[in-house]
Each structure stands twice: as C-alpha cells, then as structure tokens.
Amino acid sequence: MSTVAYKCPNCASPLTFDGASGKMICGACDSQFDLAAVEAMYAAQTGGGIDFDVPDEGYNAADMAQMKAYRCKSCGAELITEGTTTATECPYCGSPTILPDRIEGGIRPELVVPFVISKEEAQKMFEDYFQGKKLLPNIFKKDNQIAEIRKLYVPYWLFDCDADATIVYSAEKRRTQRTDDWEIETIEHYIVNRSGTMSFENIPVDGSVKLDNKISESLEPYDLTKAVPFSPSVLSGSLADHADVDAADCEKRAVERVENSITTAIRNTVTGYTSVSERSKGFSSKGGKVTAVLLPVWLITTVKDGKTYTFAINGQTGKLTCDVPTDKGKAFLWGAGAFAGVMGVGALILYLLKQLAGGTMLIVGIVGLIVALCVVGGLIGQLKQAASQSSAAGYSREGGLQLSLKQDLFLYTKTNRKKIEKQEQA
Ligand SMILES: [Zn+2]
Ligand SMILES: [Zn+2]
Questions:
Q1: 116-161, pLDDT tens digit by residue?
Q2: Residue 313 C-alpha to ligand 2 middle, in angstroms?
Q3: Which ligand does the CA of 152 lie closest to?
Q4: Nearest-ligand number for the alpha carbon of 10
Q5: Structural contact between residues 334 and 135, judged by C-beta atoms closer than 8 angstroms
Q6: Above 90 in pLDDT, residue 208?
Q7: How far apart (Å, rounded) are the C-alpha atoms in residues 315 and 237?
Q8: Closest-CA residue to 122 (of 146, 103, 104, 141)
Q9: What is the pLDDT of residue 393?
Q10: Residue 250 C-alpha to ligand 2 middle, in angstroms?
C-alpha cells in the first residue's frame, strides 16, 4: 500500500486496499472501487511541457556585405534588403523618412517563400474588396484611393514538434427511470484516461511586432514546399522586416496552439457520456525545432477619418484580410429586415392555414431570429476581418492524433430516488 491517501470518490472517507478482493474499500459508505480506476484518478500529470530548439545563427559576413538596413524614423520599423535595392518609404507606415542603419543582431532566415501575386493582382483584389459588402461602413464607400501597395517580407518562426498529452477526465452516464411513485436517477461514474501523440509541422508565428498577430494569423496558410533557401539576392527589389520578436517569445503562441489542438483531438475520443470534465493533463514534446522564414505580404493602409486601416494580402495565395469594422447600424437593419420578413411570411402562411395562434407564432419568431443571425453572420463573413487562430490542427501531419492509451474505468454507481408528487385530485 502506498502512502498516498486515497479518498472515497463517493463520500471522501479514506480508502483501504482489500487484499482478498483486490479492491479499494470505503469503510464509511461500503463502496468498493477498482484499484486501477482509483490510481488513475490520482495520477499526477507531469511531463516536460512542449518546447522547441530555437535557432541562434545570425547573418554571416558574406550576407552582411550584400545587404543594407534601414530604420523608419516615423514608426521605428527595422528593415533589411539586398545591397543594390533602394528603399524610399516605410512599408508599414508609408513614411519617406527611412534612414540607412546598421544590421545588428537578428537570426538568419533559413527559407523564403517568394511572391506569386503581382502588384497589379494585389491592387485588383483590394479594389474588388469594396464590391458587394453590405456591412461595410460608409466611410469606405467613397474614394478608396491608396497611396501605395507595399511589398514586404514578414519574418515568421515555424514550429515543428511531436507533442504527447495525457489527459484524465471524470465522466458520468445518467439515466432516469420512472415508476408509479418514484423517479430514479442512476449516475455511473467513470475515470477516463487518454494518452496520444500528434505531430505538428510549420506552425507559423509572426516575428514582427509591427504586424498585428490577428492579421498575420488570418493570412495563413502558406505553402512551405515552395520556399527557397535564403540569400540576400532573394530580397532584391523588396524590403524584409528585421525580426524583432525573438523565437522564445513566439514560442508561447505556438505552445498554446499545439496544446489546444491536441486537447481538442483527445477530448473528441471521449464519447458515450452524459457529461465529461477534465481532471488533470500533462504535455511533453520531442523533436521540437524552430525554422526562421520570410513570408510574402502585400500591405495596404488607408486612412479614414484620421484612423488607419490595414489590408494585407498573402503574397503567395492572394488571401486577403483586414481590420475593417462592421457597420453596427447596417447589421441591425439587415437582421431586423430578415426577422420581419420571416415573421410576415410565417403569419401569412399560418393565417391561410387558419393556425394563427400564440404558440405557432413563437416558433415562427424563433425561426425568424435564427434566419436573422445567419444573414448577419454571412454578411460579416464577407468583410474578411482578421481573427486570431487558437488551434494548430491545420498543421498536424498525416494521421492526426495517434492514441496510445484509451482506458474507460468504471468507478461506482449512485442512485437518487425522488418521490413523485401526485397532484391532489379534486
Ligand atoms: Zn465512501
Ligand atoms: Zn514606418
């Protein structure tokens, strides 16, 4: 018998091990439990956590000789480019006051994904964006002249790892039976134990403080199979942001996405219960590594009523995102219109069927509300607003989750009886 003080899951009294039956016994409430189930309940989930080997190789002397650096006096952006390229304005803020600077620090990118989308194509995508967007605020309706579309390589860190997780859940199966006088609720308690591995490849986290993470994550995914090895000449004619958020800081974001993905995948294997709650979990990882890359982005900023809005286009796939807000007044009118439409048609049909009554109109009202939410949701979707991604499931390798432990251990049954109150017969 170990020194861990196991407590009865039913009444919290101490449990003792009974050698004859091989069960854990509670002297207070006479329950017995399988040893394996009780041990699983108390298993502490440790594990080293998810971690990554971070690259530390900087630019070499040959790179430096072929490169130039600039600093924007207006927004502070640090930029690098190939030696014969002359930068005239800052790709982030458009300021012309960008001054030559020295290349200091920074990790040498390993790979660069080249631009596929041309400037003309990006311009057309930006112009087309303003067509048919019902919830676009009116300030964007007039005159969307843009000073310049700016070509920028954004530094990203790509995270790879094989992640392991062990999660223990408490789960219940409930069912209710009725006799003439009693309502009997039976609750079966289980301990559910799962371990699994999921491999992740190339989870991107942007290494630039200047670019909002919501924007960069909404530009995903990039096809890394088209990447070429970095050399200063690849940057010819365009600027690259000098990574100013280091890999260790970006790691948090990657760890979060890995943990969320594997937690969701494992939870999806726990089925057949009325309710499930997590008791404990632990993570570890193998082969965690980080690759520094430069990814292509077309950046467009437009100023409306003194506020700057950013549009970004994935330079490889043409995916567009932006931080344009929803026009709340228009959203309300569209929602109200859809609701009124359904109510009107519903009332007419019910009238023709001679069913116009409170109960049926309530159902029509609920349908109207659902239709209104769908209409507004669909119209908001048109705006392609930037949003963060909490998962990394899209970056898991072939096969997804591989379960290595799948244990559903019965603990005990609890029965609640309730006397059914009979209505007094008059
Ligand atoms: Zn007990
Ligand atoms: Zn700037």
A1: 999 999 888 888 887 777 777 777 776 666 657 889 999 988 999 9
A2: 19
A3: 2
A4: 1
A5: yes
A6: no
A7: 15
A8: 146
A9: 64
A10: 23
What six digits make up the tokens of 392? 């990394």
Closest CA to 238 of 122, 376, 79, 110: 79
Confirm if 370 and 335 have CB atoms less than 8 A apart. Answer: no
Take residue 375 and report the two structure tokens written for it: 């209409």
What spacing in Å lies between the alpha carbon of 382 and ligand 2's midpoint? 30
**How far away, in angstroms, is 242 Cα from ligand 2 center?**
13
Ligand 1 center–CA 22 separation, angstroms:
17
Which position has the token pair 């109109």?
Answer: 361
Q: How far, in Å, from the CA of 151 to the mean position of ligand 2?
A: 13
**Helix pair angle (358-382, 328-352), 10° resolution:** 150
Ligand nearest to the CA of 71: 2
Q: What is the pTM of this model?
A: 0.72
Rounded to the nearest 5°, which phi and psi values hold at 150?
Answer: -115, 130
Distance (Å) of CA 70 to CA 55, 79, 87, 94, 357: 24, 5, 8, 14, 73
CA of 226 from ligand 2 middle (Å) equals 29
Mean per-residue pLDDT of the chain:
86
| Sequence-separated (6 or more) residues with CB below 8 Å from residue 247 | 52, 54, 55, 107, 157, 207, 290, 292
Write the CA distances from 194 to 41, 61, 100, 199, integer angstroms: 12, 51, 56, 17
Q: How confident is the model at residue 423, as a pLDDT?
A: 67
Secondary structure in 3-state letters for the chain: CCCCCCECCCCCCEEEEECCCCEEEECCCCCEEEHHHHHHHHCCCCCCECCCECCCCCCCHHHHHCEEEEEECCCCCEEEEECCCCCCCCCCCCCCCEEEECCCCCCCCCEECCCCCCHHHHHHHHHHHCCCCCCCCHHHCCCCCCCCCEEEEEEEEEEEEEEEEEEEEEEEEEEEEECCCEEEEEEEEEEEEEEEEEEEEEEEEECCCCCCHHHHHHCCCCCHHHCEECCHHHHCCCEEECCCCCHHHHHHHHHHHHHHHHHHHHHCCCCCCCEEEEEEEEEEEEEEEEEEEEEEEEEEEEEECCEEEEEEEECCCCCEEECCCCCHHHHHHHHHHHHHHHHHHHHHHHHHCCCCCHHHHHHHHHHHHHHHHHHHHHHHHHCCECCCCCCCHHHECCCCCEEEEEEEEEEEEEEEEEECCCCCCC
In the reported structure, the alpha carbon of residue 90 is separated from the centroid of ligand 2 by a whole-number distance in angstroms of 4
